[in-house]
Amino acid sequence: xxxxxxxxxxxxxxxxxxxxxxxxxxxxxxxxxxxxxxxxxxxxxxxxxxxxxxxxxxxxxxxxxxxxxxxxxxxxxxxxxxxxxxxxxxxxxxxxxxxxxxxxxxxxxxxxxxxxxxxxxxxx
Length: 124
Hints:
By secondary structure, this protein is mainly beta. The protein contains no helices and 7 strands. The chain has strands spanning 2-10, 14-17, 20-29, 37-44, 59-72, 78-91, 97-99. A hairpin with a 5-residue loop joins strand 6 (78-91) and strand 7 (97-99). The chain is globular. It starts with a strand and ends in a 25-residue tail after the last strand. The model is unreliable at 95-105 (pLDDT under 50).
């Protein structure tokens, strides 16, 4: 998934445990400029460095994965959490710069159109 938006805030790197770190990015997404949305993304581990090139006010294209988790408290009550995890950011300054933590980060394949007539090529 991806969106184009304006950077509102770039958080510091937070060392959660000895082996886990994260960083937050807040953007203003103005699909309807009268009612903009402020969306929080999370970069984890080696992806934290992706946010180094972002500055408040930059127009960016954010590529992310939607993650969801279930958590059960001590009383047995279930809670659910969603996270938008950044895996790539393009700063839209006319140069089309792409900042990736690793050059071999895979691109996502385009969706397959299951409604298109594929013909009858079944072997049976």
